[in-house]
User: Fold this.
Amino acid sequence: MTKYAPGKEQHKAKKSLGQNFLVDSTVCPRIAEKAQIDGIGVLEIGPGFGALTVELARRAEKVVAIEIDEDVIPQLLENLSEFPNVTVIQGDAMEVDLRLLLEEQFGDMPVAIVGNLPYYITSPLIMRFLEEELPVESITVMVQKEAGQRLCAVPGSRECGAVSAAVWYYSEPKILFDVRPGAFRPQPKVTSCVIRLEIRKEPSVDVNDTEWFFSVVRAAFGQRRKTALNAISALLGTGKDAVRNAMAEAGIAENARAETLTMEQFAALAENLRKK
Ligand code: SAM
Assistant:
């Protein structure tokens, strides 16, 4: 029984909160190392009992950790008692005003987001960090391997989806390493991986209206068995001829599917459709 993953008698892990605590003591130092946080601020999502938090606290200037489950907080605070540079906030990372929190807690300090994410909200959390354009330098998180592959898939490749386009728009993503199920308690059914998104200073493509760009991307991927032409036309309610012309002007074949389009093609297509 480790103090970072107490046995069932002390704490029954809550599946609904994605509680899989890290028990392999080699994994947390690796994540903290790869997060490149020496001397900067860290916003940690889901500290649990603090296995990763202590490794972050050893390297970062300051760590602020948001944990939803009030039952773990007393033990978490005890485990962190020798680290005065950690602040624990009880709350829901999907609900907290993160921009305000970053400003209040870190001021001008550069900040990275790090966490062994609860898997039930991996994509919504990452999308939230990206779409709100939070002032952070990078996001280094553990996710299910399949989710990691999808998030980091290059637009234009078979595995990509609307979420990959958002990841590539705002960041430069990398899959760092895999983590086996046996590294956690309770063990998840699948392999996990750690990914790192380095936030770009400027988006990867130039678009005039980001919201419209992502409406087009989401529509294109919205009906995966259809061609991009049919999916966009159905979901955006734009006439087929207009979509066909916009695609032709962007150099996209009429029968192309969304997963074959590059970021540049999506940007050109969105721009052409915006003008129609
Ligand atoms: N970091 C710990 C570790 O590696 O052992 C725990 C990781 S566990 C996969 C995910 C943690 O996120 C749990 O402690 C869970 O209670 C917490 N959590 C789940 N949903 C959350 C939310 N919406 N906001 C903040 N924390 C959440």
Summary: The mean pLDDT is 96. The beta strands are 21-22, 41-45, 62-67, 86-90, 111-116, 138-144, 171-179, 184-185, 192-199. Residues 2-199 form a domain with the Rossmann fold fold (CATH 3.40.50.150).
